[in-house]
Specification:
Length: about 550
Amino acid sequence: MGLTFRISVGIWFGIAGAWPAYASEAPDLPVSVHIDASNPTGTWKPVWRFFGYDEADYTYMPFGQRLLSELAALQGPQIFIRCHHLLTSGDGQPALKWSSTNAYREDSNGNPIYDWTITDRIFDTYVQRGLKPYVEIGFMPKALSIRPDLYPTKIEANQRVPIDAGQAYPPKNYDKWRNLVYEWARHCVRRYGAAEVGRWRWEVWNEPNIPYWKGTPEEYFKLYDYAVDGVRRALPRALVGGPEQAGGGGKFLRAFLEHCLSGRNDATGGRGAPIDFISFHAKGKPRFVENHVRMGLAHELNDVESGFATVPSFDQFKNTPVMIGESDPDGCAACTGPELGYRNTPQYACYTAAAIDRECEIAAKHHVNFQGALTWAFEFENEPLFAGHRVLSTNGIDLPVLNVFRMFSKLRGERLEAQSSSSPSLDKVETLGVRGPVDVSSIATLDPRQLAIMLWDYRDDDVPGPAADVELSIANLPHDGGAMIARYRIDQTHCNPMSLWRQMGSPPHPTAEQYSRLKAAGRLAADGPPQSVQITRGGLTVHERIPRQGVDLLVLTFD
């Protein structure tokens, strides 16, 4: 019996009909990459381990649960999950950029009624898998909003709900807002235990410097004060932060940090407000030009640059953990369009590897305590296969970008210095993007049992180009003798189920056998059996051929 999925042919061809072949008749580009195992640059921080999405009610749906299990299975570090609409009023019917929990309403006398049924279902799904909530305190319940008349009335599954409807407005009563947050946090402590909830992160709202928040900056600071006071009353050692603003530095972030340092706290009457982590968002800006996608990596990195420059300008925050609370190639996961055709392809995976590497470089430049870059991508229930949304999987079929996180999960230990003959300078990338020389860069980590090396061949323009013929030389390994190398790849023919789906004729309703093959094609697997190599005097040279927009991972295990 065939599996039934909807497919919009018009939408798909509009997004990916001009999807280029990566093969090129030009000769391979020779590139040398050198890694010195005696020159660690510090412990590798797994900053990639954060994920988020708009539609909280997808959490406990079939494909949502499956994807969360896949994220939980990533090796090593703790995975955090953030989502919108945890306090939004409604019946739990999700739509594009919308969900609801109906956690708060009032009786006819204005007394609060709390209902944690749906929020429990969401957090239970996380906690049962060992995932940690990155709790977004928002949006405003209808009974508390100063504009309940602007709340959406009828929600359709395929509808995109405005971000600036009634849920975006300030509360009519800040004491009731604080008590709502207090009762929610107290309930979580009772349900999951103080030790568990003490490892969560609590932040207030989303992007309050754009129409997600229909109040003034000062009203947001007040919202933050009351919310944090509520959380801390329930759990004094709860980790709290914000402001999750859109974009990097600027007046809003600076004003918020000044408020947290010395502003009047509206909730307590004292000075300043608690803040355990500082968060902002960074987005790329892709375009569709000359029949192909051109990514906007420079735009995202400039957001990161301004945010990372702002935080240490305050002496008191030089050591405060900093989060890029959303770190993505574009600004709308639920949107589709030709400029977003990268999403189903290896280019998304390659962009992500390049972006995270450059974010780490910017953090080191500003001596920032960079803790995480959150990928705002999940899945959409009951949407067409490869519909063009920004997701990690489509109807249970993993996309290339999910596999780059599986690669990241294999990096551990000390990060090593890696030098490439084809890696543009940070200044050049921030100014021009990767539009000239291709970016062939590397992240290498070493622990007592393995050396792991991630390599990629990235360019903003998704056009055919020569592969990189990489001579990879490794020196000063603390090991001589035999070793084994396992290779993992993401490119046109590896971890790329959409390519297979097109070879199948793009079936709108894959058969069970086809669906099984597509699922297998979306899984990261070793490219052949491990190969035996010999390390001589701590040195080793290997050759790798990486196609344009390809990512390779080499894992060298010592005997």
